[in-house]
Fold these 3 entries.
Entry 1:
Amino acid sequence: MRDFQVLFDHASPDLASPNHALAPYGNLTFPSPPANRPWIYANFVQTIDGIVSLLGDAASGADISGSPEDRWLMDLLRAHADAVITGIGTLRLEQSLERPRPRGPVFRIVDPELLQLRSSLGRGRQRNILVSAHADFQLSDYAVFDGDSVDATVLTSTQGAQRLEAQCPPHSPVDIVAGSQLSGNAAPAAASPHYASPHNDSLDLHQAVAALTARYGLRYLLCEGGPQLYSSMLAASLIDELFLTVSPIQAGRSSPYGIRPNLLPQIGFSREEAVHWNWLSCRKVDDYQFHRFRRKPAATC
């Protein structure tokens, strides 16, 4: 793996003794979290034309990236997070791809140095939080719920929790958290702070994040998507930073699998609602760009 070329970085202060594991990237620090929730940052890879998946409306960035540096950066961001949150659709898609993991991925750190960095940062055992309002799946179908490599949580509705608890044997390693459920009679509005499943069950994300924070003492939370979860959290003002890798390819929106998504496939902000960002840093490796953005407070936009 090659070192990142730092084009500019206004985000990270110089550290007197930076951890050796950070050497390929440079210093990386985060602000203290807000008083009532964790600092939440997201990580995505997209094409030059803004596509985040080559597989239609499902989301997987692996085929867009093709970069060992992007994979390493994912581990670096996981090392700083108390937990990784993602939608169940991402897990299902990764399981369906023809890769040597028939029961899907475990979203964990692979690099040994970054595992040591995580320990030096005082982070606990890795945790994956899977969001599914309806919870219409079998826990046994997915390796992430075995409890071998990471702790696993399912964030779901009250009804979803009942479905999953019926599957759990005694002393199950899976933690099920029931978020506050909203009416399933209609899909949430475009800029609604709710996460909706394809069944129109929906979760109040503010109350859900509060429940997770109280349960685990979260200070830093990494959102790895997919686009539906990310856009719902963005609309709820629950995304503080975005790490965005831009891959030097163009793909277009049309594909044999359907219309390819961008980061906000189901969200349309008005001019007044549009989210504004500060561009904190930019790095490159060959023709790949690695950006970091921090959300501007609404009052400054």
Entry 2:
Amino acid sequence: MIVNRITCVALLASLGLLAGCNPPRGTTSGRVDPSISTPAEVRDPRVLPVSLSEFSDQVAMEIAQDLGKRQLAPAGQRATIILGDINNKTQIVSSTDFEYVRSKTRNSLLKSEFVRGKVMWVENRARLAQLAAREGVGTVENPAGPPAYDPRYTYTLNGDMFRISRGTTNLYWMEYQLVNFSTNEIVFSSATEEKRGTF
């Protein structure tokens, strides 16, 4: 009897807590599935977050496929890939949106044992130098870190983002390229475009 009362009180308390977490009636705020576009996003002239996520998946898949066909470094060695710059010419989309694509792409590829056997992703030296100085690992002038990368087998993942605007319609072109440091050759490119408008 006492156990049942305690159980009922605990159940009612948890239901009360859960009810307190729900948004008020008439509102639609709360956690949203990342694969769904909200009405506010659909009305926005910028690239949809869903499209950015899909583009990241596309880039990761195409890089993995490309690595199955070509050698970026001699057999037995791994190429080095550094996250490069983002050339954002859209004027209305934050570069942070495109950094999200790039970071999500890298994260997906780091999960692939096959890709990790072909390339290593490294953090840029400026960021590591700041952390080393803050944490007392080496100095800014002589940070602890890897030796110079061989430019023949070192690549950067760069992004170019453009927008063509006509009235209330925007056409976006988004491209990521792997560029070799030694030759400046673009050895890989993945791109997508999206048109956003109000009718």
Entry 3:
Amino acid sequence: MRHLLLLLFPSLVIATSAQAQNLWLNLDAGVANYDGELQDHRYTFQQSHPAVGLGVGYEITPNINLSTEFLYTRISGSDEYSRNIGNVMRNLSFTTNILEWNVRGEYVLFDLEDRPWSPYAFLGLAVFHFNPYAQDSLGRKTYLRPLSTEGEGIPGTGVSNYSLTQLAIPFGLGVRLALSENIRVGLEWGLRKTFTGYLDDVSGYYVDFATLYNAKGQEAVNMAYREDQLPTHGGAAYPAAGKPRGRGKDDWYYITALRVSYRFGGAAYTTRKHLGCPKVPQ
């Protein structure tokens, strides 16, 4: 949080200047979820987590806005909740914190100087950092990337290690309400299209048992396939090399948030409904 405030400080200084009447301070609060191998539903609150964001926006015109924001949230998933018995037996889970910085443009359908509310759409670009982890059989927090559970980065597997800092495309829809000239409240649903399938550390295929064991040790094998940790364990062997472990698609995460916006420096536009015809000089 300290680093977040330091990064935002220059923008806040600019926003408080006398020339900043078109600048807004944005505060977001909501919930996040994800779509990936360890979640059956594309959108669900079953494993949702709080999300908070802080940023600034610039109102270019009454219909076009630009904004930038830092957002912090957490996502998770577990085979425990799957309707697929094969996934339940796989017994994988993950959690990761996400720190995102985004820049986006908005198109607001109605001029909020003339109407009390308006739908809007947004599209942008984001950089985010994640680091998936899970609890091992003893309840210890274990980061998954160093274990190369699908052979990532192990010579001879042909699987590259994934980066923990990635790009995403945020886009979505919302509805905004003007409470006054300087305060607005909106409810929005934003999707993040990522370019990695490893938000949950599950994406491709099982790597050969011996290859994984020799390169990363027993802990990596234990976290790559966890049926033997179930109370109903039936003694199934570690899956054969090349058997699908994931679906090979990119993961997504979602933010549903309430956004409160405050305009610095007072209203930038004269409220049009208060404008009358110019007086004719006497």
